[in-house]
């Protein structure tokens, strides 16, 4: 029996700086991804999140699963800064993650600098 095209969850298995962002996506490691992304110790993952969705604990499950390898989480909240809800801040604090919300552009720039410094950084970046 012939096998059709297999659709897999978007995942780049490594750490890489973000080369560009905008137009609803990101460029990194000579690839492009349409939509939001999570940049974690396990790699760069597609993230089903956009600016209209609430910043809820469930949306950050994958981040919390890798918490012991993350000291700083940069949350790119889109074109504008959105505060993190108290429940989400408490979940990060309970896992010893310092979470900093900022615009996606600022988060990308900060992530690239911290990654180059070999810091234990992760980023949750909502596409703009």
From TrEMBL:
Pfam families: DUF498 (PF04430)
InterPro entries: MTH938-like_sf, NDUFAF3/AAMDC
Entries under Gene3D superfamilies matching the protein: MTH938-like
Protein name: Mth938-like domain-containing protein
